[in-house]
Every structure is written in C-alpha cells, then in structure tokens.
Design brief:
The complex is a heterotetramer.
Chain B lengths: L26 H5 L4 H29 L10 H37 L7 H23 L13 H5 L4 H28 L12 H33 L12 H35 L6 H14 L15 H28 L9 H24 L1 H7 L3 H31 L5 H28 L13 H31 L39 H12 L2
Helix pairs in contact in B: 2-3, 2-4, 2-15, 3-6, 3-7, 3-8, 3-13, 4-6, 6-7, 7-8, 7-9, 8-11, 8-13, 9-10, 10-11, 11-13, 11-14, 13-14, 14-15
Chain C lengths: L32 H36 L1 H9 L3 H26 L3 H31 L17 H37 L9 H25 L8
Helix pairs in contact in C: 1-5, 1-6, 2-5, 3-4, 3-6, 4-5, 5-6
Chain D lengths: L16 H32 L17 H29 L6 E8 L2 E6 L4 E3 L1 E5 L3 E8 L4 E5 L4 E5 L5 E6 L4 E7 L12 E6 L1 H9 L6 H11 L24 E3 L5 E3 L2 H9 L22 H15 L39
Parallel strand pairs in D: 1-5, 4-10
Antiparallel strand pairs in D: 1-2, 2-3, 5-8, 6-7, 6-9, 9-10, 11-12
Helix pairs in contact in D: 1-2, 4-6, 5-6
Classes of the chains: A mainly alpha, B mainly alpha, C mainly alpha, D alpha+beta.
C-alpha cells in the first residue's frame, strides 16, 4: 500500500507519531470484510468435496489479515510489532504441527 | 575488597540519606507501592513462606519413606502431600522465584531505568499471586488435592473427589501473574534501556530474563486454557478428555506439557542468568563467548517448545512422533552444554574469589550438569521406556530444579543481598550453609537415580523392601538439606539489623546496579545513566582503577 | 543534578526535570509521551499474543476432534442457525469499523466524534451479545448444552460426539462473549474519558489500545463463524 | 545388611533387557565421563586461579574462539548417536514378534487382572513361560495406569477405552515385580504384583489346572448369551456381517472409508455399533455400552479373533493394506477413519 496517503500530525517532538489513515481505506476494508463474510456463507452452500474447509480457512485468514493490517494499523507499525504477531502465530503453529504429528501418524505401521 | 570500588572510575550515584526502604513508612506504603524494588520484597516474603510450606511437605514425605511400609501417613494423605509439594514448589516458588524477586528488583537497575514499563501491572501480578496462594492455602486447610501436580485426566476430571476445581483455578490465576510479569519485562527490556545500552552491552541476566519472559508469555496461556477445559469438564461432566465420551486423555497431556515442559525453562533460564553474573563478578572477567551465551538463552526458549511429548513416550503417542520428539530433545541440550562449557572457560586465567555466591554457582554448574546429562538418558526413547515414571525422573528434575534453579536463586540472593538490604551477611555461616546444601542435596537425590533404574516407581507411598537402604540415604540427605536451607533464613534475617553496612559495591563488580547506592534510592538513579561500555568490562575497569588507585 | 544529593527526590507532586512542560498523563518513569505510547502499544500486542495462544489452545483441541469425528462436526454445525451467525459477523465487523473511526477521531482531536464512534461500537457490540443470548437460550431449550442438560439424540450413535462439538461451541463462544463483555465494560469507561476530553493527537494511545483489543475479539469471531456454523456435510440444513 | 538386600543394578530377565542395559552403560560412561572431566577442570581452574593478593585482577586473555565451535559440534554428534541408538532400541521394544502368545490385561483401581487365551484368570499375578514372546493386550476400566516390569525393562501406559499392546520375552525363570507406574489414586503404590516366569512344561501344567474353558470358548458362550448369533450367522443370510475370517482383514464402511478389523475395531463395534457401519448393512445393532464388563468384552473380542484365523496365537503384523495397523501400534478410538477423508459422504 505505497499509495496510502497519511496525514502526519506531530505537535511536539516528544509526542507519538500519528498516522491518520484516510477514510476511504477504512470503508474499503469494511466492504472487503462484508464481501468475505458473504463469500464464506456462499462457499459453504456448495459441496466442493475436500475444498470446503481450506476455502473457509483462506477467506477467514484474508479477513483477519485485513483487520490486522488496516484496522489495527500494523502496516504503519514498528518491525517489533510485526515480530510479535508473527512469533505468536509461529508458536501456535508449533502447537498444531507437533500435536498433529502424533494424531496423524498413530495408525502407521511399525517397521 | 573495599579498596576496589567504582568511585571516580565511572558514573556513580552520590550517597543519599533516603532509599527505597526508608522513603515511606507504614504497611499501606508497601501494599500499594508501585516501586519495582518494593514489589520484589513483597514477592521475596511471599515465596519464602511458600517455600517453607512446600519444604514441609517434602520433609514429611521423606520421613514416611524411611520405611517400606506406609506407616506414618495414610495413602490419601501421602498422595495429597506429593501433589501439594509439586504445586507449591513449581507454581508458587520456582516459577516466580528468580524472575519475580531478583528480576523485579534488578531489571530496571541493570537497564538504567526508573521502573518497569507498567508498575501498576507489576503490583497487580503480585496481588494475583497472593489471591492464588490464599486460595491454595484454603484448599490445603479444607482437605487438599490428590491428582499430582500434572492433573492427568480422567483421574482429575472423573475420579478424584478432592478439591481439583479450586486448585486448578488457583493455578489458572497464578498463571496470569506469571504472564503479566513476563509481559512487563519484555516491554521494559525493549523500551526502557538507558541511552547507549545496546543489546550486546546488556548483562547476560537481562538476556536470560528476556528469554524467560518469552516462554512465560507464549506458553502460560495454553496451560490456562487447558485448565479452563479441565474445570469445565469436571463441573459439567463433558468429555473433552474423557475417553468414555469420545475424548482423548492424551490430548490433555499434549496441551499440559506444551506449557509444562517450557515451564522448566522458566525456572532454569533465570538461574543461568544469575550464574553468568556471579561467574563474571567473582572471576573479574567477561564471560567467555558472551554472544553465544546470550543467543543460547534464546535458542533454549524456542527449542524448549518443540520437545514436550518426551514426557509421553510410553503414554500411547505414535512411535513416529516419539522419534521426532526424541530428536528435537537432543537439540535443546546443545545450548545448555554451550553455557556450561563457557562458564568453565571463563575461569581460565581469572581471579577466582570463592565467596558464598560463587560457591553456590560452582555447585549449580555441577548439579545442573548432572541434571542435564541425565536428561539425555531420558531423551533416548528405548531407555526412557524403562526409566520414565520412576525415581530416575524424580532425581533428574530435582537436579535441574533444586540443584539448578534453587542453588542459583540462593547464589543470586547472597550476591545481591547487600544491594537489596544495604547489609552484608555473615560470610562464614553462608559458606557453611552453601556446603551443607550441596552435600545434603547430593546425598538426597543421587541414590534416587539408582532407585529409579532398579525400578522404583515415583509417587509410591509404600515400596518394596529391597529399596529401603537407598531411601534411608535419601532421607538422611534431606535432613542435611533442610538444615542447609534453614541457616540462611536465620542469618539473613540477622544481617538486616546486625550486618556490616555494605556500601554501593562490596564485590568490586561492574554493572549498573552496582553504580547506585545500597539500598538504591526510590528513583534508582537521580540522573539517567549513559552507558559507553560493554557488559563485564573488567579489563577496562581494572585498568582505570589501576591508574587511579594503584592497586 | 547535584542538588539531588541532599535529600532524595522532592515530595509529590513530582516535577519532571527533563521537560519544561509535561502532559498530565505522562507517567513519571517514562522519558516522554512517545516512549510511553510505544511501551503501552507493545504491551498490548504482547497481551494479544498470549490471547492468540489462549484461543489457539481450544482451537487445537477442536481440530483434533474435528479431524477424528468429521460427521459429528457437520451435524453439530447444522444445529446452528447460520444466518444468525452471519448477521452477528456483519454486526461485529461494523463495530470494528466504528472502533477504528473512534481511534481516527481521537488522533485528529475530534472529541465528540470519538465519543459518538465509541458509543456506536458499544451499541453494535451489545447487539452481538443480544443475538448470542438468543442463540444460547434456544440451544439450552433444545437440550444442546453439554452435560446433564444434553438431550439431543437424533443420531444416537453420534450423540456423544455431537455433544463434544457442542462443548467446543459453548467453550469457544463463551470465552469470546466473555471478552466482548469485558470490552463493553472498557468501552463505557473510555466513553466517559473521551467525553472528559482526555484524548487528543498527543495522547490517543489508550483509544488505540482499546481498538487493538476490540479488533482482536473481532478476528476471533471471523474464525469462529465458519468453524462453528458452516461445516459442510450431508446433514447440512 | 546383606549385600543381596541392597541391589544397585536390576536383574536382566528379558531379551531386550541386555540391550537397554547396554545403552544405559554407554550413557553412564559418556555422560559421566564428560561430567567428571568438567568438574575436574572447574576444580583445578578455581584453585589455580584463586584470588590472592598477587592475583587480584584477571588476565586480559580469552581462550580461542575455535573452542566454541568444538563444544557445539562434538556434543551434537554424540547426541545424534544417542538418538539413533535410543530409537533403534525403541523400535525393537515396540515391534511385536509374529509368534507371540496372547495375554489380556485389565487395569482397574487398584489391581491388575490377567486373562490367558486358554481361560485362566488371575489377579496381581501373571504366569508366563520362559523363552516365548508374550504379547499383552490391555485396557483400563477407569483411570490411566501403567504396566511396568522392571526386570524386563518394559513399561506401557494402560488407557481407558483403548487397547494398547506391549510385549516381552522372558529369559530367566523366577518371580519378579509388577508395578503400576502411572499415578492412579489412593492405593497406587498397592497396585503391584508378581510375574512368575516358568519353564514351558510347568506353564502348560499350570494352564491345565482350573480353567473354565479357553477365553475364546467363554466368549462363545457370551456370544450366545447376548444373542449375537441371531444376527451374526455363519452364512450371508444374517442381518449382521459374517464374523468368520473377519479378524485382520480390511473392512469397507458405509461411508467408503476402510478400517482394519483389529481388537480396537471389534471393541468399538460392540460398544458403539453405529460408529463404523459395514458397507451394505443397516445400522440396526443396539449398543452394548454399560452392559458388558471389560472382562467379558475381552472374551468376546478373543472369540471374534479366534473366528478370524486358524492360528489364534499369530498376530498379523503386516497386512496387505498399507493403512493397516499393526499390533504394537498405538491406536485411538475412531482413528480408523483416515483423517483426510473427513469430507466423505455420511450414511
């Protein structure tokens, strides 16, 4: 989003930097979220075989990323904020991957 | 010693008449304080009380185990005692010990900050701790709990008729205390460092606290939610972990150990941080391989999350995931080995002062090494099948937690006691206590390795007669250990009134905490220090002092 | 600074020596408002990291059983009224928008704009909770609360597993609703503070942090909606 | 105190025990050796460089950085060796030999119940022949227990509602401890017993005395008592599937998933018949949950097992289907549905 025009308000050198996100970005993101919700519902009405679950997950993830980047202003945040967010999802991934490493291999043969 | 001071060498706080202890008077000035140093003292008093309680349970258990028959306590009482010993020692002593007492007191001092980032949250986390502790005490008085500190289902959810709900709720609350402390430390380290204090100028204790806080922040919520599900299951009788209703008890174990294995690193990482500080101060050298030691803390914090199911090798997980967890478990041993070897290398061509904190830390290195290498035994799956759930495991984790974490806590308490109280403790008594703890500890726990390999299962109230000799040795050691822990309680209290005034820097150590007065003033530093030197910069300091004082 | 050596810091109210003027909400241990803002925002993000692991824990358990009992999960989701969930999703997204606009107004120093947007957020949050209450009541009456109150038995063989699904439904939505209620309480406090004119371009951090929390709760629901209402299967209504 | 009352090393009485002890010895030597060397170095350095009036200041000297690499790489290689050895041993302990004798065990608060294929039942004592592999199939009636034979160096947790297996082959006759190793409540330390390892001849003699008929034949009686035989006939006319030759085969279910007919599947089909309905059959079988005790369940499972194969003692370790579960593999209820098939149509 290089073309995001932000109004810089900075009253004193000790105050925090202020990025005021323009109105149209908020409204666009809101519309995208609403469309995403409709898409989720629509996709679940059709039998797409094994693709139902991944599609629902992808839509939800895209919506979450939109909220994080724009509503939560992460796109303007420090690198440290990015690190915190990525780390928390990484750790959650560890919980999922290693737990399922057990469940999905329980039925395997022992050679 | 007194000839070696930092005065005239570097930035040093001027003496003041008022410090954080004498700044305000009255109980309310302590109970409503937002000062990190006072909160550290509140923690010190509370965890000492709970350490005594947990120790009481241990002593009674060791007396029971003098004879093979279960003759002193009933089975139920014994089961409650080992459960409460575990819960009190882990959740209420070991996890808060070094972070909440020494970390709270020292972190802002080492960073040159006036306080932690969130002083109110710091006080809140102490109150959460106290609420949980009071709940725990209430439960102990009204009948206790007998599930083991691991709360394994379906025993805890369906079969135990003790206060499982109350005690898991207390653990849930104390978990939030731990999360808030970790959060506070992380933000403080990131945002409150003094000008010039770059990451690689930080003392290794700060690095260790940083790694610890990551674990606290990211592991504890999983325990919290697991306990919530456990409480829900127990109250509503649903089957999340109950096989009769379609649940899987192993899922509870997975989620429990996702927290509780990294929790081991919440206990041992701060201990490693203390070890680095003490080794540097009492050898007057920079820790060998500073960056390796710093990064190894972070490596332990991350790798510690990848190994939890090595607690479950015989529990019924798939053989392939057992292999993965065994493989990863060996990875986490590497950074621990790095630290031990680096401390050892630091002694080379040093000036080693065998004062009390250093004695404790040398003991720590030895005992932690034994605790660590026996972990390698347990990570070898084929061997683990035989030794898991036996006294071998009990000995292993006591070597890490008591021989490691508690020894380092004692070292840190003695090392920073002059800073905290402004008084010196009696050196002779302290050395005696350190030696008693070391000897008593080994006599208590080394026989348990043998017992474990012989096959004596843990959590046994009565045992086969051929195990008696080793159990008697263990109990004899425990009594020495108890004396070793009782001594500091007496002489440290004594020193509050009769100890020699310490002066700002009794050890001739570098580090910002030694640059302010003892005890420090309320604001820590009247002027924010500007740091221009590396951590443990003893050569430069010695050179400067040699020039100014002709040592 | 040598005057300090005589007798500790001066008595309250403390005067920040380093700055000629200081903001009424600058805490004494921070150097300036910028440091305070960065510290508190970072603190909130770290708190949200713990929340991710907190909800992630239940979700891990949810997925273990969803993979093990796919049919029961499809039946369980079919017990939900999907359009109520969809409406609630939209309601929550609107409340996120108004929350974001409240932060924007605070940044631009529009006092009443901030107040109105916070009130709107509270309003939509309350609608969400109202709809949730209606669903809860309905589930309770239909015997879909797990434990002794569970009476659903349309497919006897799968009843225990459907009960397991409902256990996760109540756990997840219950924790989410609890977060909403806490958020609503905080909103009331923030409306009062905003009305008193506490916030402005120099000091909008607390509103921003309130927003982070609110958006996080929204994100949780974005995932819960497809997980609990929209599982495709033969029994889908 | 006599030395025999004070053992320092447990007896070796199984085929895997020497292997476990060998690894233990290796670990003791390597880890003990490294630890002792480290302690010695620390001790020497602390004495040699102790602070004296002449040695007030440390020398400004650092050992070469190459040391750092050495003590990262060398321990790591040693660790990997330990990992490989440990895993190899683990697979030896987990993989059940083909010709194992079946024994069934039930753990309950606070006793061990064992049933032999020929029908003998015993509590807290287990008679086994020396020199023959023994496969123990086990489940718990209440909480998690753990069956532990220290002299055989094997141990496995016993879970409620799920069959797990362990095996050993005794190499020495005698009387040895059985312990419960997973904390299970009040009398956990009383949940102990003895394993009597006998010469095969004596074992046969012991088996001959006092049995109420073999486990399978007792199961057959129960099969009639619960009127299972009215639907599960021996020809294809019954309302239920034919059980002859069923055990160990791969069954196709009504949702087109497949499952191996092993102990856990048979058990689940008795307790919760609707969970996995065989393709082509109506879900009409009532549940027997709460009506059949764990003991009787074992007998029924043993009977169905005996119907499936002539060689009752033989365990199918590898079946044609790659998804088949072997005897030693930990199974969980419901694990038979391959997770990737979760979108399959339901009945």
């Amino acid at each position: 989003m290089a073309d995001v025009t932000t109004t810089e308000i900075n009253h004193s050198e000790h105050a925090p930097h202020v990025h005021v996100t323009p109105m149209w970005i908020y409204l666009t993101v809101f519309l995208a979220l609403a469309v995403g919700t409709v898409l989720t519902v629509a996709a679940s009405r059709f039998d797409l075989g094994m693709w139902n679950t991944p599609i629902a997950l992808v839509i939800a993830t895209v919506k979450a990323v939109l909220v994080i980047l724009f509503f939560m202003h992460v796109i303007h945040s420090t690198r440290l904020t990015w690190v915190v967010i990525i780390a928390s999802f990484l750790w959650l991934g560890v919980l999922f991957v290693l737990t399922f490493a057990d469940y999905l291999t329980r039925a395997w043969n022992i050679y | 010693m007194s000839s070696l001071t930092l005065h005239d060498v570097r930035f040093v706080e001027p003496e003041t008449t008022r410090n954080y202890i004498t700044h305000d008077y009255g109980a309310l000035s302590w109970l409503l304080t937002k000062d990190h140093k006072r909160i550290a003292i509140l923690y010190l008093i509370s965890i000492t009380a709970l350490f005594i309680l947990g120790g009481f349970f241990a002593v009674v258990m060791r007396i029971e185990l003098l004879t093979p028959e279960g003759d002193l306590l009933t089975s139920d009482t014994y089961n409650k005692f080992f459960t409460l010993h575990g819960i009190v020692m882990i959740f209420f002593f070991l996890i808060p010990s070094i972070p909440a007492v020494l970390g709270n007191f020292l972190l802002p001092l080492m960073l040159g900050a006036k306080d932690l980032a969130f002083p109110k949250i710091n006080l809140l986390s102490w109150y959460l701790y106290i609420i949980a502790a009071v709940m725990g005490l209430y439960i102990i008085i009204t009948g206790g709990v007998d599930t083991g500190w691991t709360f394994y289902t379906p025993f805890s959810t369906q079969y135990s008729n003790t206060h499982v709900f109350g005690v898991t709720f207390a653990a849930f609350i104390v978990g939030f205390s731990s999360i808030l402390t970790g959060l506070n430390f992380l933000v403080t380290i990131h945002r409150m460092r003094a000008p010039g204090l770059t990451w690689f100028r930080l003392p290794l204790f700060v690095w260790a606290m940083y790694a610890t806080s990551i674990v606290q922040l990211l592991a504890t919520p999983v325990l919290a939610i697991t306990l919530v599900m456990l409480m829900f299951e127990r109250v509503v009788h649903v089957g999340i972990f109950d096989p009769a209703l379609g649940g899987d008890p192993l899922l509870f174990q997975h989620m429990f150990w996702f927290y509780s294995h990294p929790a081991v690193y919440i206990m041992i990482l701060p201990a490693m941080g203390v070890a680095s500080e003490v080794v540097a101060a009492f050898t007057r050298k920079k820790i060998f391989g500073y960056t390796f030691v710093a990064y190894s803390s972070l490596a332990i914090a991350f790798l510690g999350f990848l190994v939890w199911a090595h607690h479950m090798f015989v529990a019924g997980i798939s053989v392939y995931s057992a292999m993965i967890f065994s493989f990863l478990s060996y990875f986490v041993a590497v950074p621990s080995a790095i630290k031990v070897f680096n401390w050892t290398a630091t002694l080379y061509r040093a000036s080693v002062a065998l004062m009390t904190p250093m004695l404790y830390i040398l003991g720590f290195i030895g005992l932690f090494t034994i605790g660590g290498v026996t972990g390698l035994f347990l990570a070898a799956i084929g061997l683990d099948v035989h030794v898991t759930d036996t006294y071998f495991v009990v000995a292993h984790f006591h070597y890490v937690m008591v021989g490691g974490a508690v020894m380092a806590y004692m070292a840190g308490l003695h090392y920073w006691w002059p800073k905290i109280t402004g008084r010196m403790y009696p050196e002779w008594w302290a050395r005696l206590a350190a030696l008693l703890v070391f000897a008593g500890f080994n006599l208590t726990f080394f026989p348990q390795f043998v017992l474990g390999y012989l096959g004596m299962p843990r959590r046994y109230h009565a045992y086969a007669p051929e195990f008696q000799v080793l159990n008697v040795m263990s109990t004899a050691g425990a009594s020495v250990l108890a004396v070793g822990y009782a001594l500091p309680l007496c002489y440290l209290l004594w020193s509050l009134w009769y100890g020699r005034p310490a002066g700002p820097n009794p050890w001739g150590a570098v580090g910002l905490e030694w640059a302010t007065t003892s005890p420090p003033p309320m604001e820590n530093f009247h002027e924010t220090p500007v740091v221009t030197w590396d951590a443990y910069d003893y050569p430069a300091m010695m050179k400067a002092m040699g020039e100014t004082q002709n040592v | 600074m040598s005057d300090i050596t005589l007798g500790g810091p001066p008595p309250a109210p403390r005067v920040e020596e380093h700055h000629e003027h200081h903001h009424p909400f600058l805490q004494h241990h921070f150097e300036d408002l910028g440091q305070q803002h960065e510290a508190s925002t970072l603190g909130m993000w770290m708190f949200l990291a713990t929340e991710i692991l907190f909800f992630g824990g239940v979700l891990a358990a949810y997925w273990v059983y969803r993979v093990t009992y796919p049919e029961a999960w499809a039946i369980g989701a079919a017990q939900q009224i999907w359009w109520l969930g969809a409406i609630n999703t939209i309601v929550l997204i609107i409340s996120s928008l108004t929350m974001a606009l409240a932060v924007r107004n605070a940044q631009m120093g529009r006092r009443m704009g901030t107040v109105y947007m916070l009130i709107a957020t509270l309003f939509f949050g309350s609608i969400f909770l109202g709809v949730k209450m209606y669903e809860y009541t309905k589930h309770w009456q239909e015997g879909l609360f797990p434990g002794a109150a569970f009476h659903w038995n349309e497919v006897p063989a799968l009843a225990p597993k459907v009960q397991l699904f409902m256990t996760f439904y109540w756990c997840l939505t219950g924790l989410h609703a609890l977060h909403m209620i806490i958020g609503a309480g905080l909103l009331i406090w923030f409306i009062w503070r905003a009305w008193k004119g506490h916030f402005g371009p120099e000091y909008y951090g607390p509103v921003e942090i309130m927003g982070l929390y609110w958006h996080f709760v929204d994100i949780v629901w974005i995932f819960l909606f497809p997980f609990l209402y929209l599982i495709h299967g033969a029994h889908h209504g | 105190m006599m030395l025999s009352d004070f053992p320092l090393w447990p007896e070796q009485a199984s085929t895997v025990a020497p292997g476990v002890d060998a690894l233990m010895t290796f670990m003791c030597i390597v880890c003990g050796g490294v630890s002792v060397i480290t302690f010695f170095v620390i001790f020497i350095l602390a004495i040699k460089y102790r602070r004296t009036p002449e040695n007030q200041l440390a020398q400004d000297y650092e050992p070469p950085k190459a040391l750092e690499a050495a003590w990262i790489i060398i321990p790591f290689l040693i660790f990997m060796f330990m990992f490989v050895w440990g895993s190899w041993l683990y697979f030896r302990i987990q993989r059940v030999p083909d010709n194992a004798i079946d024994i069934y065990a039930t753990g309950k608060q606070w006793m061990w119940k064992f049933q032999h294929a020929s029908g003998q039942r015993e509590i807290n004592t287990l008679h086994v022949p020396v020199g023959r592999p023994i496969r123990i199939t086990m489940a718990s009636e209440d909480v998690i227990h753990s069956l532990f034979f220290p002299v055989f160096r094997v141990k496995a947790d016993v879970l409620p509602n799920r069959y797990k297996t362990m095996w050993f082959q005794a190499t020495k006759t005698g009387r040895f401890h059985i312990f419960c190793a997973e904390y299970c409540g009040t009398l956990h330390s009383g949940m102990i017993g003895w394993v009597e390892v006998m010469e095969p001849v004596d074992y046969q003699k012991w088996l001959a005395g006092g049995a109420e008929g073999s486990l399978a034949s007792q199961g057959e009686k129960l099969f009639q008592k619960y009127a299972c035989n009215t639907c599960h006939t021996n020809d294809a006319t019954g309302r239920g599937p034919v059980l002859l030759g069923l055990y160990g085969t791969t069954v196709t279910l009504s949702n087109n998933a497949t499952v191996t007919a092993d102990e856990n599947y048979i058990r689940e089909s008795i307790l919760n018949p609707q969970a996995k309905v065989v393709k082509g059959f109506a879900p009409v079988m009532p549940t027997f949950q709460g009506q059949v005790s764990e003991d009787d369940l074992l007998k029924l499972v043993s009977y169905v097992h005996s119907l499936g194969t002539q060689k009752t003692a033989v365990v199918p370790v590898e079946t044609p289907s790659s998804k088949a579960t072997s005897a030693g593999s930990p199974l969980k209820p419901g694990a038979g549905i391959p997770p990737q098939k979760d979108k399959g149509a339901t009945p």
